[in-house]
Each structure stands twice: as structure tokens, then as C-alpha cells.
Amino acid sequence: MAVILASASPRRRELMEMLGVKDMKIIPAKGEEHPPAGAGPAETVKALALAKCEEVRAHCAADDVCVAADTIVWFDGHIYGKPHSKEEAAGMLSRLRGNTHEVYTGVAVAAHGRVHVEAEMTRVHFREITDAEIDAYIATGEPMDKAGAYGAQGRGAVFVRGIDGDFFNVMGLPLCRLDSMLPEWSLLRSDGPLKEYLRKNGIRIGIIVAAVAVIIGFGAAARGGEIGFLQNATGVLEAPIKKVLSSTVNWFDTIYGYLYKYDALQAENESLRSQLADAQQSARDGIAASEENTRLRQLLELREKHTDYEMESCKVVLWSSSNWSSSFTISKGRSSGIELNDPVVTEYGVLVGQITELGETWATVSTIIDVDMSVGAYVGSSGSSGMSVGEFDLMKKKQAKLTYLAEGAQIFVGDEVLTSGSGGAFPAGLLIGTISNIQTEAGGQIEYGIIKPECSFDTLVQVFVIKSFEVVE
Fold first, then answer.
1. How confident is residue 207, by pLDDT bands cut at 50, 70 and 90?
2. How far is CA 293 from the centre of its chain?
3. What is the DSSP code string of 187-236?
4. Among 13-17, 18-22, 446-450, which is the least confidently predicted range?
5. How far is CA 354 from CA 20, 52, 328, 357, 468, in A?
6. Is this model's pTM higher than 0.70 or not?
7. Average pLDDT of the chain to the nearest whole number
8. Among positive and negative, which fits the CA dihedral 208, 210, 214, 217?
């Protein structure tokens, strides 16, 4: 017997392997999908899954198990399948944002000459999503092969505020339901063939076992304790039989009890898992709220310290996947008064980078370690001036270079490097980082410093664009 997966989806294959199926055959269904006219979402996915299963089943051996599935997103009375273009993907995500939609997956299992078809539904709650976030997400290419134009197991997870139901259903294969549809995979399943046999014949087996035990007991009592040669020989034969019967009865009681307690234990386990998930979500919400409060307090201090700053709060939407730059997309753009070359800082007043690309509702921030970035700087301890510049080798290490130092300048490891304000592109006094190493070039004639940025790029979730500030010459 072989297990056949009628799908080319790598996600479904991985999920099947999670159930312990390692050596399955992949035979994708190739026929066109024709949803039944006028059918609801559950009936639609069941019909599509059945069609896939029947197509592939025709090429399988009689004892093979064939599994097929089909997933759709259902919202506002419409089916959202895989988008055929970037514009269609954008339209889907625009309608889903800030709303709750349903994900339906139909599962068809063909085994032992029969086909069993079921459907699973999960509710997915989306947060509000900006147009810039949608554009940036579509640019990754991830939405184009997924129902509803998003992948909850990928980058699309940041749009999902909550899920009611089976998470794996959203990925394309409801494991809990599939597990219940394949009893032959485990002999001792709560819904397996052994339980079904015991449900039908349990009382009969119990009566037979009890009757045999009673007969043996009466035989021993009738002898009145006196035994002869023949009785002794019979006793010798009876002893192992009694042990076997006793073990059988104990085994029967144990298995019978286990199987019928399993359902209750499974339900209790599901309830506990749900409670744990709720508690974990509450904890995450609490941590997020605490972090937000900290950012706001620090921002208030920054505003009080720099009353000339006009700042715009922005969310970090997506980091660039390019190996040749260090940049990310933020959630606001020209419509919020942001302009090219505006400086970008954290709530602590630490320099992050500069606006280098601008859209109506989005902008790109190149960080201070980007290869095209240069910032006028000075060393806090000595006042020596120089430039903080990005270099490719240093960028990969999340470092920048302090160079073009004035003649006779002295720098030391641990010195703070701040913006000088020269040129008017950045306010003076923004912390860039600290010198972590000092090196030389040009045969040891020129000294430069390696800057470890104060900004932790890996943990950025929110930044502040300084739209205007007082230029000090």
C-alpha cells in the first residue's frame, strides 16, 4: 500500500510528513477546476477535492490511499482563489484588510474502494493594512500562488490578528480532520478499526471470556480439592491457559478503557491547547503594549529635548531582500508630508538612516550602513570631524566606517560618533554609534574607525521621520 498525495503543494507535503508519512508519492491532479454553480464554500471545496481525488485515483493501485485537497478563501459571499495578477492580488488584500474572512479546505480520501470527503472551516481576522504594505508584500511574490493572495505561514503572517479554528487548515491541509479520516495509520486510534470492532463485538467478547473463566472455575470446585493423576495432568494443562485468559481479560479491560477514555482526554487536551493559545496571545499583547508605552515615553522626551523637530511616526513594513543594500519600507509617504532625504531616527533619537525613495503612501529608508550612505559626523570625546560611510564588507557585518578624519584627529575605541549637522541633511547631535575598532589604510598612513551602530536594526518595528528641524551652521 502506498500513500498518494494528489497535490504539488510543498506545504501539503510537509504537513503530511508531520503526520508521519515519509515515503508518499506525489501525483498532482492536472484537470481544470470547475466549481459547482450555486454551491456554498464547503460544498465547493468538497467537490473540487473529490474531482482531484477521482482523477488521481484512476492511476493508483487498488490498495493505495489517495489524499486530495482544495482550499479557498470566502469573504462577503465571494470565493477568493489564487490571484492571476498583481492587480488582482492587491484587490483581494484590500478587501480582506481589517475584516474577518473564512478559509475552507475540502479533503478527499480514497481507501479500500471507498472515497470519504469532508470540509474544514477556519476564521481568520486581518488587521488594517496600508496600501504600502500591500504593495511591498506583493513585490515579494509570495501572494501569487496562494488562495486569498496571502500565506499565513510566511510573510503574510504579519497581517493575521487572530485565528479561530485549525491553523493548518489555513495552510491548506487540516491535519486534525485528515487524521480522523485515516484510521488505518494507527491501530490504537480512538477512531480506528480496533475501536470500531470492539464497539460492535465488545460485549460478545466479554461474555465469552467470562464464560470460559466460569467453566474452568466450576471444574476446579467439582473436584472438591482431591486430585488424581488425570486431574493433575489436567491442572498442568489448565495453568498456562488460565494465565493466558487472565492476561487476555486484563488486556481487554485496559485497551477497552483506554479507547473509550481517549475521546474525553483528546477533547480536554484541545480545550487546554486553546486556553494556552489565548494566554500566550494575551501575554504577547501585553508585551507589545509595554514596548509601545516605552517608545512613546522616549519619544516624548525626545520632543521635549528637540522642540524644533517635526516628526512623523511610521511602521516598518518590509526589509529589502537584496544583498547589495540595507534598506526597508515604511508605512507612510508623500501624503504624510515626508520628503526625499528626510532623516529617520528611533524614539531614542538614534540615527537609523535617510529617506531615499518616496511613494504616495510609502517610503524606502536606506540605513546608515548602506553602501550609498554618507553622514557628516564628529567624535564626541574630542570633537574630531569626519564622515560615517557605508561599505559593502562592513554592511554585511552591520557596521559603518568613520573616515575622512581631520589631520591630527585622535579616536579611541568606545568613542561615541554623532552627526555633525554639516550640509544641513541631518540635525546635529544624533547618535550614530560607537567606535568598536581602529584600523589603518594606505600603508598605515591613514587611520579610520569601525562604527558599531547604536540602532538595533533587527528589532526595529517603528521609526520616526524628522520632517523639519532647525539647521545650525
1. low
2. 26
3. TT-TTSHHHHHHHHHHHHHHHHHHHHHHHHHHHHHHTTT---HHHHHHHH
4. 18-22
5. 50, 52, 11, 9, 13
6. no
7. 80
8. positive
406 and 385 Cβ atoms separated by less than 8 Å = yes
> 434 near 272, Cβ under 8 Å?
no
List % helix, strand, coil for the chain (3-state, nearest 5): 40, 25, 35
Of the candidates 344, 336, 343, 340, the residue with the CA atom closest to the CA atom of residue 360: 336
Neighbours of 344 (CB within 10 A): 27
| Residue 296 to residues 272, 301, 454, Cα–Cα distance (Å) | 36, 9, 19
pLDDT higher than threshold 80 for residue 417? yes
Long-range own/partner contacts, residues 221-225 (CB < 8 A, 24 or more apart) = none
Integer CA distances (angstroms), 58 to 16, 50, 109, in order: 21, 12, 13
Give pLDDT, residue 217. 54
**Cβ-contact 131, 137 below 8 angstroms:** no
Nearest-Å Rg of the Cα atoms of the chain is 34
Strand-pair partners of 329: 318, 364
pLDDT band for 191, please (50, 70, 90 cuts): very low
Q: Are 447 and 437 in contact (CB under 8 A)?
A: no
Residue 226: pLDDT band (50, 70, 90) is very low
What DSSP character marks residue 144? G
Q: Are 463 and 344 in contact (CB under 8 A)?
A: yes
Hey, is 81 helix, strand or coil?
Answer: coil
Distance CA 405, CA 114 (A): 80
* Model pLDDT, residue 288: 58
Higher pLDDT, 430 or 410: 430
Q: Is residue 441 within 8 Å of 460, Cβ to Cβ?
A: no
The catalytic site residues sit at: 70
For residue 208, CA distances in Å to 162, 197, 254, 312 come to 54, 16, 17, 82
Nearest to 467 by CA among 330, 372, 373: 330
- Best-predicted range by mean pLDDT among 33-47, 76-90, 257-271, 459-473? 76-90
Q: How far apart are CA 11 and CA 461, in angstroms?
A: 29
The single residue listed with the C-alpha cell 553622514 is: 375
> What are phi and psi for residue 406, nearest 5 degrees?
-65, 150
Residue 415 pLDDT more than 80?
A: yes
Q: Is 180 within 8 Å of 191 (Cβ atoms)?
A: yes
Q: DSSP letter string over 419-437?
A: E--GGGSS-TT-EEEEEEE
CB-CB contact of 87 with 104 (8 Å): no
> Identity (one letter) of the amino acid at 461?
V
In this prediction, residue 214 has a pLDDT band, given cuts at 50, 70 and 90, of low
